[in-house]
């Protein structure tokens, strides 16, 4: 049974209803992302993909200018700004919230000045200066769990109880954000699949998803085309659409409110069917 959860999410210019799982489309403006690296690096290609995702039913678009795949190298600040700011400017009036996937406070500040609606931070707003950039805004936040950093996170990650430890980390970050004056209505949390976790850790987190966040803070899940799916199916990243949809349905069934994906149209359709069945079963 789908567990109860928050009804709305404050996301910059938008207040999103959470009566069904929302779909966040991924727009990587990078040459080295694990699945779509370089595909949308040209400005025109990225713009076309963003509009296509809106047509396919995306509820949000997450713009990234620096790959965070395992082993990825850091991108200089000016290069990241040069990739993402023109895209935010071009898409600001696209009609759905824009998210920026960054951990750099300077990028947060510049993106917010351009009107971005959500900051998606793999470091959970732990970098010096990050909280200061978001305190005075109305942007939504995604707080992610990561063990280590992208260069080292997959080198023998270890936990006593991965679900309990990830839940404790996310709860601690929620408390820290509240102490900084940020309302829970602006927060979402992400357990960080693949960010310092083994295959077993990832599937344990997916199975125990409902235990990872307070009932009034929405879970944002990103498993699309990741290696955890390839390990089970034996398929490369470009053949993991079906596995990604299956994982999205598993996440929705366990309470995920926002699903971050590459395959927007397929995921939207799958979640519509899941939601229709749930509504027929529960009347909600």
Strand content: 15-25%
Which CATH top level class fits? Alpha Beta
Under the CATH scheme, which architecture would be assigned?
Alpha-Beta Barrel
Instruction: Report the strand count.
Output: 10
Number of helices: 9
Distance between the termini: 12 Å
Number of domains: 1
| Largest sheet, strands/sense/barrel | 8 strands, parallel
Low-confidence regions = none
Indicate the percent of residues in helices.
25-40%
The backbone outline, from C-alpha atoms, is globular
Q: Major sheet: order of its strands?
A: 8-7-6-5-4-3-10-9
Q: Over all CA atoms, what is the radius of gyration?
A: 17 Å
What is the CATH superfamily label?
A: Dihydropteroate synthase-like
Structural write-up:
The chain has 284 residues and is α/β, with parallel strands linked by helices. It has one domain (8-282): Alpha-Beta Barrel (TIM Barrel), CATH 3.20.20. 38% of the residues lie in helices and 16% in strands. It has nine helices and ten strands. The protein has helices at residues 43-55, 77-91, 105-113, 130-134, 162-179, 199-207, 227-233, 241-253, 264-282, and strands spanning 8-11, 14-17, 22-28, 60-64, 98-101, 118-121, 140-144, 187-190, 219-221, 256-261. It has an eight-stranded parallel β-sheet with strand order 8-7-6-5-4-3-10-9. The protein has a two-stranded antiparallel ribbon with strand order 1-2. Strand 1 (8-11) and strand 2 form a beta hairpin. Helix 8 (241-253) runs parallel beside helix 9 (264-282). The longest helix is centred in the last third of the chain and has 19 residues, at 264-282. It starts with 7 loop residues before the first strand and ends with a helix.
